[in-house]
Every structure is written in structure tokens, then in C-alpha cells.
Write a structure and sequence with these properties.
- By secondary structure, this protein is mostly helical.
- It has a domain at 3-63.
- The protein has helices spanning 3-32, 44-63, 73-83, 91-94, 102-117.
- Helix 1 runs antiparallel to helix 2 (44-63).
- The N and C termini lie far apart (77 Å).
- Residues 1-19 form the signal peptide.
- This is Magnesium transporter.
- It is found in: Endomembrane system.
- Its main location: membrane.
Length: 124
């Protein structure tokens, strides 16, 4: 985080805390007034100060973020495929009954029946 981004973030946090304190003071003063003609809503200057301070804090945090790195999903997925998929976090999702290839399972079962019967398939 650079100096400018830290300074921006700290300035925004100071403004945000001031807006919070102002809102607290406004509610305390409004609750103590017997015959208040003011509305119970916060004044617009406090609301605007809070919104501006949030934008400034967000700007400071974005400026201080590290540079983005390129996505290396294909490298990671290729490594998982080479290892056989033991570390694949999506393996459970891919093996759900909705994703089973029925034709491949039928062929696998038919091959198993042929090898178990010695090539003689029972006909009915």
C-alpha cells in the first residue's frame, strides 16, 4: 500500500468517524428536545459526508491493492488432470448422478458381462 493510498484511506476513515459522531450528536440532541420542530431524519450534510467518506475509503483501498496477476486456471487444471484428479475440488460435482454418461456405463457393463460369461451372452 503506497503512501498516497494510506493517506486517502485514513482521511476517509476520519471523515466517516466524524459523520458517525455527528449522527450520534444529532440523535442525542433530537431526543432531548421537548418541543422539537425538526424532523427525526438525519440532516443531508451528515448523509452526504458519510457517503463521500465511504467513496474516499473505497478509493484509498483500491489504490492500495496489489497488481492483479494473470489467471492460470488452465495450468492448474492440466496439473490436476495429470495427477488423476485426486485433488480436484469439483470431482464430487462431476460424479453426481446427473452427470453420469449412461451410454458409457451401459457399454462398460456389457463389456463386463461378456468377459464374465466368457463371450457367451445369454439370450432370452
Amino acid at each position: 500500500m503506497g503512501f498516497l493510498s494510506r493517506l486517502t484511506t485514513i482521511f476517509g476513515l476520519i471523515l466517516l468517524s466524524h459523520a458517525g459522531y455527528s449522527a450520534h450528536e444529532h440523535t442525542v440532541l433530537f431526543s432531548n428536545a421537548r418541543y422539537s420542530t425538526a424532523s427525526p431524519a438525519l440532516p443531508q450534510d451528515i448523509v452526504i459526508e458519510a457517503l463521500v467518506s465511504l467513496i474516499i475509503v473505497s478509493l484509498g483501498l483500491v489504490l492500495g491493492a496489489e497488481q492483479l496477476k494473470p489467471i492460470s486456471w488452465s495450468v492448474w487444471a492440466g496439473q490436476i488432470e495429470k495427477e488423476g484428479g485426486a485433488r480436484n475440488p469439483y470431482r464430487r460435482l462431476e460424479e453426481r448422478p446427473g452427470f453420469i454418461d449412461i451410454r458409457a456405463k451401459r457399454k462398460e457393463f456389457a463389456d463386463w458381462v461378456r468377459t464374465a460369461d466368457g463371450g457367451n451372452v445369454a439370450q432370452g
